[in-house]
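User: Structure please.
Assistant: Input sequence and predicted structure:
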Amino acid sequence: MSYFYPLMRWPHMRKTRLAATRILALMSLVISLAAWGTGQGPQDALANGFKNPPDSAKPRAWWHWLNGNVTREGITADLEWMKRSGIAGMQMFDGNLGTPQFVDKRLVWMTPDWKAAFRHAGAEADRLGLEMAMAASGGWSETAGPWVKPEEAMKKVVWTQTVVEGGKEFSGVLAHPPFVNGKFQDMPMPPELNFPSATNLPGAKPTPPPQPPQAEPTFYRDIKVIAYRLPEGEVSMAEAHPRVTTSASGVDTALLTDGDMATPVSLAVPEGENQVWVKVEFPQPYRAQAITIAAGSVAMFAGGAIPDGEVQFSQDGTNWLTLVNLPGPTQTTGNFPVETYSFPETTAKSYRLVLRSPALNPMMVQIAAQLGFHLPSARSVRLAEAEFSGPRVNHWEGKAAFGNTIEFRSLATPHVPKSEAVALKDVLDVTSKMQPDGRLDWDVPSGKWVILRLGYSLTGEVNHPASPEATGLEVDKLSAQHVRNYVKTYVDMVSGALGPYFGKSFRYFLMDSWEAGVENWTDDMISEFQKRRGYDPTPYLPVLSGRIVDGTEASDRFLWDFRRTIADLLAENHYGVATKYFNEHGVGLYAEAMGTDAPTTGDGLLNKGLVDVPMGEFWTPPVGMADSATHSADLKEASSAAHIYGRKFAGAESFTTAPNAPVWASPYYLKPLGDHAMALGINRIIFHTSDQQPFVDGKHNPGITLGPFGQHYTRNVTWARQAIAWNTYLARCSYLLQQGSFVGDLAYFYGEGAPATVPFWKPVNPAPPEGYDYDWINADVLLNRISVRDGRLVLPSGMAYRALVLPSYVDQVTLPVLRKLRDLVAGGATVVAPRPIHSPSLADNAHGEEYRSIVNELWGPVDGMGASEHDYGKGKIYWAKSVGEVLAAAKTPPDFEYSRPEFDSELVWIHRHDGDADIYFVANQKERPEDLEASFRVEGREADLWHPDTGAIEPATYKIANGRTTVPLHFDPYGSVFVVFRNKPAALSRTLPHPVRTELATVSGPWQVSFPPDWGAPPKIHLDKLISWTDYPEDGVKYFSGTATYTKDIEAPRGWFKPGEKLFLDLGGVKEIAEVTVNGRGLDEILWKAPFQIDVTSVLKPGVNRIQIQVTNLWPNRIIGDQKPNAKKQYAWLDYRPFRADTPLLESGLLGPIRMVGVTMH
């Protein structure tokens, strides 16, 4: 690191960048062995915790019990391996992805045998000192079980409409609203998505015949009966008697306009065409301002619901103009199968939908291909309904939380005259006039009226992918009572099974990312709405069916209030109630609350802030690709929640993958992903996944998997014995990142709407400037937790920020937030924010004068075009200036800067402050060495380098000037280091000795390579030179997976052994992990990442030395070899076959060149 920087200036040593990398890595070992004092002593808790991380810093692993394939022996073996390998806990899931039964006796969820095995796991965890946790339901989402009664389950609003003429008595039975379980009205749940399973698996028991389908439990209850007078002149499409035709053959087009969403029609794309159309022709010109399209409901991962296409109109039936492009941006439409699109008023005789067949989901295509299946391209489009109408709320299905819309800014309902909206005075509550059997007797006022019978039924969501015995309805997440009943029952079941280990070794429940869909009603919704929003929602209830009431702005704002109420209820009554109940019973809650892509109507930070360990997730992308912005945002949300709500740990479901094969990634490949997550604030790694392996006979490897998902990080991976090195690296990083407090200069406010989440779908403007870190905050923190002290925005958690930033999209804030911004700026805060245009909430309508007054007072002339700053009280508000300029004006320089040797050099970093220590984690995201200078906003302390791969701590070369400390750093490919500032300096600069490298010899062949028995390879082979095993002609070597041992005797001349010189063995290329033995003495270090070099000074002697190098590769080659047509034996046993015979092999073995190197310090 800092010692190595001068070496790079010596031209005679810069033969290649790779050689320099090896030199510098060698120096790291030399310097650490020199043990130059940096103030660490036996009582140095921070250094000792770094070298030997406590359990609190070690990673955890998800532990899936799949379809009852569980044994006591397997439980013990799994947990003992975790303990040996530096994994401090497991988080158990009972699930089923179609896994066949392999054990003699399947353990059925919550039966006596299952409970005995579960208690055994608790006892073993207690014996081994492991932390045990369990998912909060069967499967992995979310809180559900067979004990949830229909009335306690997730709910949605449903309705029927009866049109009546006024001026006379109406007496009749109102049609009953649908009570079908599903997403919307009478649309049923989509068919269950089943991943294809491999067949002919050895040892699989016969699959029992499927159980006869059981009748779904249903539920319905009335909400209100609302009558509203229709605007004058409104004509429905049915009343206009259009003719509907299609280019698809054999279709009954009457089904597309019958109001029935339960039976979608399949529209086949004509031969030679790439699209199909549906034409709606009216006898007279029809005035339309919206279209509602209902497609077929789709399952998760199965692709889009609304197909690609256009809505068009024509005045002559020949020339067509486009009104709407379908389906619209995914962040606005999500994947909901019903959408209403508003458009400018159009009058025409002919309209049509032009639809194109949907693309197959790429992940499903790849999974099928891995299993040898081919999914044919779709040549049809599913459509249930298409209705043109007068004005409607634009995309009201998402705004009313039937579906899941994320970005609402572009979806404002186009303005319509008040005369075309339902007047507020014309909305009547006639609930009292309906009898229990649905009969309504009402003296109807003049005009044309719609009687809206509103009720609620079930969404039908169940937990998945759970075993059948653990499957049941998802509990109503908006009801404190129902959630409390749920968790009480669940805690009683789990604690009863665990006995004395509940609250002892068993310490947490876990909620995975949300896959429970969306709900928009609960039993006391109206009273909760009125309590939280301050007005009665009853007159606006027709808006939940798409109607515009009291104008477009009022309707959109009511729906904003409606969603915000749902988000508050979800946070408080699901995550809050569950956490409180668990805590009262001695355990805690991990939760990915609510997960990536804003999967439901929630407030991500509020949800995460209410649980004990907030979590995000990140995935392992294919080679050459980065993980998605979605996952980065989720990680930042988890760490921000920990910082702003005072939680010590920010966890992450880590290294998930699909559909990439679950056994292909090495620790070296995973390292930059883990480093990136930790630089975003994650300090507890939780592996996805370590499935329970029931067999201990060594004949079932790699074993049972979670299908296409996860790392398959179990005791059966080829490198299971060496996993301690990777886990310890992560533990050392996590330990330092758990110390003290995060240092961030900026608090970014992500707004008040719902769903609310850290934005991932577009760049944030203004962006955080380079060199500064930040947290996201929500309305709860802004209103209730943040204050100003000495010009900084401070939180009870200890966080302090230099400025508050509202991105450009947060230009609508409620009156309470506006008042708080005024008070913060008046108290001395610096705020960067756009001038608000209005409140998004209907609750603020009565306070328009106060609202405008505060805006004018606080922003003054600042409008984003002219003036860009305004002093107010002790503080200042800015807009149209970069955040970097604002911080510069506040005399806040960047926290971290670095020189860039290449245009695309990329370091990720994070800063924590702990007492007198400043701790910076810095990691190279490029697979190449980097030499650079890093500048830190620290002065008055020495810089030391703490190496998380070895635990070594060494002093650094540094220079202190102008309030900053500059440290020269060298990074290996994907290298990382902690730069720690603690001790008072003796001088303002320090320059340390530099290493001198001498290449003593190249170790050439021949090599003897030995292989273990029973894995297809010969006992030994002879190599004249080092090659990849995949280049060897014999199949047993070519397809070998596991550990092979290279042996060679080398002569070490006495001239190599000089006082003060260290000797290193440089292995060159290794695929994937190496261990070295010299003269029968094993060296402790496991070489799992580049450069692969090790100090052999203490074991090498003059004369003949026997070198043995154990090299371990990964599982894919053996699995691929087993698929070859000429394969005589299946060596690899696993329930999911992610590779085919033609899958390219992975380079494997010891590749070299191998060199002996001498190093001295000068």
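Residues 747 and 804 are 5 Å apart (CA to CA).
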